[in-house]
Design brief:
Blueprint: E1 8-9, H1 19-22, E2 38-39, E3 42-43, E4 48-51, E5 56-59, E6 64-67, H2 73-80, H3 83-102, H4 120-124, H5 138-155, H6 163-173, H7 177-181, H8 187-210, E7 215-223, E8 229-239, E9 244-255, H9 260-273, E10 281-285, H10 290-293, H11 299-306, H12 318-330, H13 336-349, H14 352-365, H15 382-392, H16 394-400, H17 407-423, H18 428-443, H19 448-463, H20 465-489, H21 496-511, H22 517-520, H23 526-530, H24 534-537, H25 548-554, H26 572-575, H27 582-597, H28 609-613, H29 616-621, H30 623-632, H31 640-651, H32 661-672
Parallel strand pairs: 7-10
Antiparallel strand pairs: 1-4, 2-3, 4-5, 5-6, 7-8, 8-9
Helix pairs in contact: 9-11, 12-20, 13-19, 14-16, 14-18, 15-20, 19-20, 20-21, 20-25
């Protein structure tokens, strides 16, 4: 039968065609989903068509029949993989590219050249005179899609951070264009399928694993935005499928009363309902409050006594312990800085016009504006985060609150404002605008509470300025040790094997700021550190670490800079002030104390000191100290230039008059290079 007499069947238009009836009696019956499969990156339906003959399909590219009645799908796949079909495909692509570059090829058919065969019939029925759509350049299509995506983001008030994920999702969905065209979901459908579809699938998989492997729980209670108390349970276990430890959400349980007994009943019901064996439970990590870890009636005590006597005692959440340590460190300062942080936040919170003027003040002074953050006492190391931001904005706050002083105090504290102007290079025009802002602030009517709050603020910013800056500098210098530890332990990766060593290292590093190094070095284990007699080993107040900012404030300007210890290494920043920045100086002091208490790798015999300081592990461990060491080691220690003179005399002599100094320099460059 000639190729032109083939009667091609279309699934959509030929609805009366029944493949089962035509292929009745054959081993393999035609299936329309074969056309949606790929072979070597090519869709089968690109050129393959079903014809009315039983057990036969037709390739429009090669003009040949394909017998599928015996082998079914395998026959189609083998045919598309044959060399003759691949060669014809390359030729087709070549012709297609030429037509796009040089215009459409003339054809007797009304369908445009290069159109997908599936749409030839529809194109032939198009009205006469209808022109083909002009191809749009790729760059313009990309810009158009970017505009659509940005408009969608703005229309639905989406976070900008989600845009890259939306692009990746769109690319993934576009792999199956036919399925994407039929994709539809209403709001109700989304909710239903998340709960009983995808969510249920993950839940079933988790429960299946918890019934067969050992796992640990992390439990905490919180209050939602609608004031509902929720108990969150996370499970950590070694996944046999992924071959690594994973953390997954186990359950979120609503609670009316948050007591150890009520929470215990919730957990027991959770286990029994899902048929999770208690014998698989290894440990439970919770905060150290009485409800969770009370030694007599806490939740963990109930579980250990009644259900799982084998539970490991992993103590409370270490991050909560670190937060409690930070609160204990701040306690002797009697809420001095915390009061200022709260007053600054509340002063801006209740006054939009103050925020606007404060923002303009920051722009004039060249300081990045941000609204003063809220200090939350129960949030981990919140005092450190807020103090860092307040310290950055301190110059702007000083200039901003200057008109809030009593008139008789203006003369006393004016030099402070003038010093800020000079340091930040404020122009005369900017000073004039600041005076206008000050005038507006001076005329602002205040409530009694507002007046009292501003009086406290100006007292700490101006009258107690030295104490305020000293405490801020101390917090900014000491708390990074604790902050780094908390961030490390908040990672999802399993770090239980590093917990003890990390905690011991933090303890030694923190003690190194206030306890003599030789005493700390006598203890190598946590038990030995706990037994140290710290009262006899505490440094003198002037030797304790408090950061470069706080240290400068307590030094008298008329006396030489006091060195924290007698070690020569700590004198180096004063001797070479060009090596380290102000921020690096604080880290440098911590590096020295860490260096004194650490165990160092062996120094190989015959190796040079600069090679040791240049090792990658040393540079990463003592970042600023190694920077200073490498800078100091660059100093000459002998008259090596004399040897250069000798070489010069050998090269340039009375007989080599044509050899100028530039040529000699090139020779030396090569020699030393």
């Amino acid at each position: 039968m000639a190729a032109t007499s083939r009667s091609i069947v279309d699934k959509v238009s030929d609805k009366d065609f029944d493949a089962r009836t035509v292929d009745m009696g054959l081993k393999n019956i035609w299936r329309w989903d074969w056309l949606e499969r790929k072979v070597k990156g090519e869709y089968v339906g690109k050129f393959t068509r079903k014809i009315t003959s039983a057990g036969l399909a037709f390739c429009e590219l090669c003009h040949k029949d394909v017998h599928y009645g015996g082998c079914g799908w395998k026959a189609l796949a083998q045919y598309i993989g044959q060399k003759i079909h691949r060669d014809n495909l390359k030729l087709w692509w070549s012709n297609y590219s030429l037509s796009a570059a040089f215009g459409q090829k003339s054809t007797d058919s009304k369908a445009p050249y290069g159109i997908h065969p599936m749409f030839k019939a529809a194109a032939a029925k198009a009205p006469e005179g209808a022109s083909a759509e002009i191809a749009t350049p790729l760059e313009d299509r990309i810009v158009n899609q970017e505009a659509m995506l940005l408009a969608f983001t703005a229309e639905y008030s989406l976070s900008f951070a989600i845009v890259p994920n939306l692009i990746q999702l769109a690319k993934t969905l576009s792999h199956d264009k036919r399925a994407l065209e039929h994709l539809e979901m209403s709001r109700t459908t989304v909710s239903y399928k998340i709960r009983f579809g995808v969510g249920k699938m993950f839940e079933d998989k988790l429960l299946e694993n918890l019934r067969s492997v050992h796992f640990s729980l992390n439990i905490d209670e919180s209050t939602s935005s609608n004031y509902q108390k929720v108990l969150i349970v996370l499970a950590s276990y070694f996944s046999p499928d992924l071959n690594k430890v994973v953390v997954q959400h186990f359950a979120s349980l609503t609670c009316i009363k948050v007591t150890s007994e009520s929470l215990y009943q919730k957990i027991v019901t959770l286990f029994e309902t899902n048929e999770v064996p208690w014998s698989n439970l290894m440990s439970i990590l919770m905060d150290s409050c009485n409800v969770m870890r009370g030694s007599k009636s806490g939740l963990e005590t109930h579980i250990r006594e009644k259900k799982a006597g084998h539970l490991l005692d992993v103590d409370g959440d270490i991050c909560h312990h670190i937060h409690n340590a930070a609160k204990a460190f701040c306690k002797p300062f009697d809420w001095f800085l915390e009061q200022l942080l709260n007053d600054l936040f509340n002063d801006m919170k209740w006054s939009p016009d103050l925020r606007e003027m404060y923002q303009e003040m920051c722009e004039i002074l060249g300081i990045k504006y941000s609204i003063p953050q809220r200090f939350v006492s129960h949030r981990w190391l919140s005092v450190y985060d807020v103090t860092v931001d307040t310290n950055r904005l301190f110059d702007a706050s000083t200039v901003f609150y200057f008109p809030m002083l009593m008139k008789e105090e203006h003369r006393q504290h004016l030099p402070t404002v003038v010093e800020i102007y000079k340091r930040l290079n404020v122009s005369e025009a900017s000073k004039e605008r600041i005076r206008e802002i000050h005038k507006e602030l001076g005329q602002k009517k205040l409530t009694k509470e507002g007046r009292e709050r501003k009086d406290r603020i100006v007292t700490q910013i101006f009258t107690q300025r030295k104490q305020t800056k000293m405490v801020m500098g101390l917090y900014c210098s000491v708390f990074p040790l604790l902050k780094h530890f908390v961030l490390l332990l908040e990672m999802k990766e399993p770090l239980i094997h590093q917990l003890h060593e990390s905690q011991l290292k933090l303890f030694k590093d923190f003690l190194g700021c206030y306890v003599k190094a030789e005493v700390i070095n006598t203890a190598s284990t946590g038990a030995q550190l706990k037994k140290l007699d710290l009262k006899q080993a505490i440094m003198k107040p002037k030797q304790m670490f408090m950061g470069s900012k706080a240290l400068k404030l307590i030094q008298s300007p008329s006396t030489p800079t006091y060195m924290v210890t007698s070690f020569l290494k700590q004198k180096l920043p004063a001797l070479a002030p060009n090596v380290l920045t102000e921020t690096e100086e604080e880290l440098y002091e911590l590096n020295i104390r860490k260096y004194q208490t650490d165990q160092h790798p062996d120094f190989p015999e015959g190796s040079c000191i600069d090679e040791w300081w240049g090792k990658e592990e040393i540079c990463l461990k003592y970042l600023c100290l190694s920077k200073m060491a490498k800078a100091v080691l660059s100093c000459f220690h002998g008259p090596q230039v004399e040897s250069s003179f000798n070489v010069m005399n050998d090269v340039i002599d009375a007989k080599s008059g044509r050899l100028n100094i530039e040529t000699y320099q090139a020779i030396q460059n090569i020699k030393y290079g």
